[in-house]
Amino acid sequence: MVQGNGAMPTVLADYANNRFKVPRRAFVEPAVFQAEYERIFEKCWLYLAHASELAANGAFLTRIVARRNILFTRDAAGKHHALLNTCPHRGAVVCREKKGKAKSFQCMYHGWVFDSDGHLKSQPGQDSYCAGFNADGSADLVPVPRLARRGDFFFISFDRNVQALDDYLGAAGEYLDLVSLQSERGMAIVGGTQEYAIRANWKLLSENSIDGYHAVTTHATYLDYLKNTNGSLTNVALDGTARDLGNGHAVVEYKAPWGRPIAQWIPMWGESGRTEIAEIERKLVERLGPERADRLAHYNRNLLVFPNLVVNDIMAITVRTFYPTAPDYMQVNAWALAPKEESEWARKYRLYNFLEFLGPGGFATPDDVEALEQCQRGYQSMKEAEWNDISKGMSKEKPSYDDETQIRAFWKQWQSRMSPAMAAE
Amino acid sequence: MMSAPTRSEIEDFLFLEAELLDEWRLQDWLALYTDDARYLVPPTDVAADAEPETNLFYIADDRFRMNERVARLSKRMAHAESPRSKTRHLVSNVRIKEVHDNEVKVSAAFVTYRTKDGVTDSFVGNYKYLLTRSDAGWKIREKRCVLDLDGLRPQGRISILL
Fold first, then answer.
1. CA-to-CA distance for A42 and A40, rounded, in angstroms?
2. CB contact under 8 A, A351 and B65
3. pTM of the shown model
4. Predicted complex: ipTM over 0.90
């Protein structure tokens, strides 16, 4: 099937023959990139921040979400506000700090001052403005149209009419809850953000983050490292399933031989580590019962919340989100999430686990970055070599973690949002 | 007490390290480090002296992981550096900050260029070294690379040794 010039590229889903193909144009064309902002990033719920990042009343952070600078505040009464960080007067970015505590925010250009809920508090030369100048609130910081939370995960949407967050998340919400359940006192983002970029289309990272198929080749040297490092593996086999969670969300859930701070011991952690991990698991069983405790402790989950939130609960927990600034360039932010009550010992191993594998200085992520960039290079041949193949495991009743059901879930949603008439199902 | 080292003596040592890295003589590079050495690259949104036990770093290698990093980089399947990139480590503004018994703290500015597939990226920052002198000469006990960047954009990865 040749795709028409000018039309949005279309996913080819041939269920009769178990073939699923994605046009490479979707990764390259500026028109697709523009349409993705209009139809996906400005329509979906997008991850903003974790509640722990604003730990006290008066705390704030700023963050780029879908190209917009967002000021996220917790006011003196503890209420959260997501504001567009642009002065209603002339547009300058009002808060130029990444995070901190503040009662008010002053624009550096003409000195307008805003409360942490965004209301205009004062401006120099107030007597030159007519009475009731801001009676309609048009001189306040503009709030993001929608802000909602699932547990401690805050999301925003630029679409006032977006469906309720819980409905949007559907079954994926339960997987976010599973992450929150790991702690009695709550989970928290650890200090330090891994901020990087990849010279590739953003959808390649949505795919890659839940792709169980690539590990053996892309991450051969990381697996070697684990194998060669005395005591870094248990005899648990890599095995599990993939699920399409609906609405483009997907998860792979599997057992793996590596250590998990909650809660799978590896010999390298020694006898004191064994005691500590056993105690963590015992408390989980006590709190949640043996079945859920086993799932939390011994199963890994790579979760994609459409379009671009990844929560991977693997040898550590990473929260990762990414936005394109061009068809062939994305900016990535990644954080480590951990239980507040975690011991120093467990925290240390969690962070070491994280950075050995994850992140741009680790033993694995640089090879993912390389793979994604090489794909993007390959797409220069898209006129002759048109298609990506995402058919693995299509005929299976119970797809494995290393099949591609979960990646098809992403693409089906992408398709239905980009051109609803051409939905892949 | 040792006699205070001269800046040119320290510079020679740091320039040797840079040369070994640019020539990909990674085993020789490892030999410059003590058995209890650390090689650290903190993220760019924490204090320069933050610790990796409580903050998420880009790199926090003890000597064991340094060995593994070098072993990995020597493999064909280390895709990000296979084929290898070209690098140039420039070391400048070398300052001896403190001298204690047989240890010195050294600060130096660096720019490291990495070229691969027609793209040249630069890493700019400050090296904070803890050097120790024995009969065998200078060794590095700690190297902390504090990046003067806002994240790794556009570099995307630290697959080379900084």
1. 6
2. no
3. 0.94
4. yes
